[in-house]
TrEMBL record:
Belongs to the Gfa family. One of its GO terms (molecular function) is metal ion binding. Pfam families: GFA. It comes from the Eukaryota. Signal peptide: none annotated. This is CENP-V/GFA domain-containing protein. It comes from Lachnellula hyalina.
Amino acid sequence: MAAELLANPASKAGAIEITNGSCLCGSITYTVSGTPSTTVLCHCTSCKKPSGSAFMANNFYEASKLNITGPTSTLKKYNDTSPDAGGFVQRYFCGDCGSNIFIKNSKWENAVIVATGTLDYEEALTEWKPDAEFFCKRRGPWLSNAGAIEEKKFNAMT
């Protein structure tokens, strides 16, 4: 079940490392420590729209692992009430360039969802692969051979 992937936001086994990230214009910078507890492609409408793509690639971390290091004057928050899973999420983005930075979900208070594309180092992006996919009922059929293994593709997120 998809909820099991998110029940414990503790990092996966591995060396603790610091990863830098930023928005497109560089106004907002951050660090995240450790490896993500899970990596997900989300096909829900409320992830597709802000990403401007067919899905959004997300890394789940313990909330305490994210540290905004640059000025926060352009960091904006949008309370998104459209998620398919119900409730709302808080989407944080750069008010200058519009880059999605991270998401907080009230269902997982100890977790933060970092937009994978905002990571600064290429190694993280070339080695990245999804552990799971959420809301596959909204997944483009042309993506059938990409993403997570079949057993980790969920029509919803619960």
